[in-house]
Amino acid sequence: MLFAAPAMLLFATFVLLPLGASVYYAFTFWDGFSAPRWAGFANFARALTDPTFLMSFVHVVFYIAATLIFEVTFGLVMAVLLNSDRRGFSLMRGMFFAPVVLSMSAAGVLWKFVLDYRTGLLNSTLRSVGLGDWAQPWLAQPETALLFICIVSGWKYAGFYMVIFFAALRRIPRNLYEAARLDGANGVQQFTAITLPMLKQNVIVCILLAVTGGFAGFDLFFTMTNGQPFGATEVPATWIIKQAFDQNQIGYGVALTVVLTVVVSLISIAYLKISERGNVTRY
Amino acid sequence: MAKRFTLATATALLLLTTAAIAQTEVRFTHSITGGASREALDAIIADFEAANPDIKIKEIVFDDDQYSNQGLITQLKSNEVPDIFFEWAGYPVQRDVEAGYAYDLTEAMATDGWKESFSDAVWTDGAGTMVDGKPYLVPLSLDLTNTIWYNKKIFAEHNLTPPKTWDEFVALNKTLAEAGETPIVEGNNEFWPLGNWAGHIAAMVVPADAYVAAFKQEAPFNTPEFEKALNLLVGLHEVGAFNKDMQALGADPAMATFFQEGAVMHPIGSWLVSETGNLADEGFEYSQFNTPPIDPAHPLANSVIGTITGLVVHKNAQHPAEAIKFLKFLTSEASQVKWAESGQMSPVQGVSDKAKLDEQTQAMLALMSGASGIVPPPDNKYPVPVAEAFYQAAAFAASGEKSAKDALVWLDETLAAMGKQ
User: Do B72 and B110 reside in the same domain of the chain?
Assistant: First the structure.
């Protein structure tokens, strides 16, 4: 007990105390400047009817769905295609993985420049090849802003999932493929009958990572659009920051954080249950 | 010899150390990150430190948005509070006083004729520098928070002149849009740039009582008068006045776009002048005009939107006497001449006559002095969440996302859900 005391003290100071304070402030009207006023459940009632906050969860679901396509599926495809010892494949894997090491904020700023309406690389290219009519304010239109964030996220993280799948592919015994080939199985049949079943646990882990990562999404949304246009790319974290700091409604912002914590906790519990049932490696 | 040298060195070090220890550090936080005004401020600080070697001014500088969102509040709550902090007049000063962060400057202002050195207008009830008759904000600049800057060369190319009425203004935008220009660039990612302008437009259309009541949440926004105000923005949208990426663009990139001739007009505040040196090419010719009258019968038809920005001494400042000494130096005539020549409108009496003001600053001063009233920006006068919600409703209208009516319905619903602020 004595040996654990320093760690427990740190835990209490930096986790339990702020957590307790947060719960308290969630029940107050507080602008951060003046003294907090007791609000009862008013902030929570407002949170549950706040259309932007509720919509931000819809955006997260869309983002997760896109993550599964642009990151997990594409990562799997690239892992399969680049699963070779031939010359140049190692370099290609390295290139595909490179965006993963870039910070999320830097990637967001970089792509914001690329997608800029007036001077961005994408629109400049379109204009230079005579397709100027196709140039759009990609990050200023509700129809395209979220999609482009998902695409950038895919560019950033597909390499991460590729590495997970690539490591798993290397563990599949070669003789399984040799036996299948002797039995006349083609490439697609080998993929569906051997590769996919052998990767099942990795696929489940990647899906769960994508889901939990989706709720933690912030950096890319903040740097690329800051929730704009008109909340079309708002996710819970960006909305909380706006309420707490831009609008000096810290009490309400903290209440939103509590709601988000509950939602993410429920998802985490579901994740644990699924991983126990499927005997999946926990991350 | 060596012993004597060692002794002399030790004595010198001791003296230096003593001098360093004796120096008082005044912590001064603000959001003037660059441009001519920052150069002027740094020069004034250098002059002050030269005249007062026992005082060092430590500047803690944040980007404007970062300062107002997180920078200031974090410092005010910290154990090491700033001795002096930058603030906007009006609601923010009142909030600082109520929260116990602002030092009552009554006594300091009464000595050396400090208070009288400022223009009388900064001490009026509506100026927002005082609370309960006591001065808390030391005025540093008069800010025109929105005027319409335009590119003189492009105006000349299209034979255009500053409009005298709102209808002329809409027609001018139409002409420019049809000629393939981007008439107006707005960087509205943070909502306030267009929001300030929309606040002014609404104040020029809506009866004053109804305007105030709505922002105080005592009456709805969804009225024919507010609808008329937002419909003016809808009208601009319909003639293609605004840049397509308005909601994705930040305030600073929008200003850069104007200086790079990416748009013909840019509605923003007087601080644009001090950024000219950094952002505009040599020979870039620009000027400004006020939002044209909309309803000539309205008492605020010829008003401007503006505020006072200044400095507050923290109530728990470690060195209030030194902080006040510095602020007196900063607002002295000699310092203010430097400040005004950097493109700022000084609130100190007589400075405008003595400083070599550039053409833009002179024009803005003339505009302010000839105005029928000064409308404060909504986020300086009323609770920030209410102002921000209004700004968003204005953005809905200006970008064509919602009709004026729907934007106002959305605004009232949002405020109802928010509760009284």
Answer: yes
Residue B417 and residue A35: Cβ atoms within 8 Å? no
Q: Please give the residue range of the domain that contains residue A264.
A: 51-278
pLDDT category at B336 given cuts 50, 70, 90 is: very high
Chain B residues 390-409 with CB within 8 Å of chain A = 392, 395-396, 399, 401
Of A46, A50, A140, the CB nearest to B248: A140
Residue A36 placed within a domain? no
State the angle between helix axes of A121-128 and A104-114 in degrees (0 to 180), rounded to the nearest 10. Answer: 30
Same domain, B110 and B42: yes
- Interface A:B, Cβ pairs < 8 A: 74
Which of A33, A140, A145 faces B73 most closely, judged by CB atoms? A33
Same domain, B110 and B188: no
How far apart (Å, rounded) are the C-alpha atoms in residues B264 and B55?
47
Note the pLDDT of residue A252.
Answer: 95
Regarding predicted confidence, which is higher, B65 or A17? A17
Task: Please classify residue B136 by burial: count the beta carbons closer than 10 Å to its beta carbon, then call 0-12 exposed, 13-18 middle and 19+ buried.
Answer: buried
Cβ–Cβ contact B248 with A under 8 A? yes
Round the average pLDDT of chain A to a whole number and report it.
Answer: 90
Q: pLDDT tens digit string along A198-227? A: 998 888 888 888 888 888 889 999 999 999
Domain count for chain B, please give it: 2
Alpha carbon of B47 to those of A196, B310, B329, B344: distances in Å? 74, 20, 9, 19
Task: Give the closest residue to B221 by CA, choosing from B7, B25, B416.
Answer: B416
| 8 Å CB contact of B245 and A139 | yes
Q: What is the CATH number of the domain that holds A198?
A: 1.10.3720.10
pLDDT band at B68 (very low <50, low <70, confident <90, very high): confident
* Cross-chain Cβ contact A117/B257 below 8 Å: no
In whole angstroms, give the CA distance from residue B138 to residue B35.
22
Residue B124 above 90 pLDDT?
A: no
Q: Which residue among A35, A42, A140 sits closest to B419, beta carbon to beta carbon?
A: A42
Check B385 against A248: CB less than 8 A apart.
Answer: yes
Give yes or no for B47 touching A (CB within 8 A).
Answer: no
Range(s) of the domain holding residue B169: 146-305+373-418
